[in-house]
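Aim 2 progress update. The chain analyzed this quarter is reproduced below.
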Amino acid sequence: MDLTQGTQEEKNSRAKKMMLWFGIISLIMSFMGWTSAFIVSSSRPDWLKDFELPNAFLISTVVIIVSSISFFLAKKALKTGNRNATTLWLFVTLILGVIFIFNQFSGFQQIIDLGYNFTGPTSNVTMSYIYLIAIVHILHVVVGLICLLVVIYNHFKQKYDATKMLGFELAATFWHFIDILWVYLFLFLYFIR
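Predicted structure tokens:
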């Protein structure tokens, strides 16, 4: 397919989707770098081999998976013209995103309660990696929540319908990406010691 063909709107849509995918690919590379560094560092003598991830991280994993389902249901409702269901599922997704972040900070508190801080004399390289990976992911969830707020605002302004969904689709793609990313990170941190 020739990317230079089509209406200006089609070209604009392709360009925005391409930019999003470039961003996602760069994020994948960044997180692959951090998880690779985690594996390399695990050979250090001060590496914790027997740590357990906080229960709050497991809860947040379930929450973020459900949030992906709710965003999917919002998109499905929009495609069928059901504005009320779209609104409901968008707000459910937003609330679940906030609950995810709350659970992440609960997980950090559980790590602190074990005696490990991010830096300083009570820090440990293993836990510092976990803090770093989780905090950078939280920042991307915050970006996803901002995108979601923009989608909700535009939805109330009736800018989306079954034929005009570009912003909605871009936000949904990013949201599903950060959800899948967290599931990968959780499984990585759970199984790789």
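The mean pLDDT is 93. Residues 48 and 140 are 27 Å apart (CA to CA). These observations will guide the mutagenesis experiments scheduled for the next reporting period.
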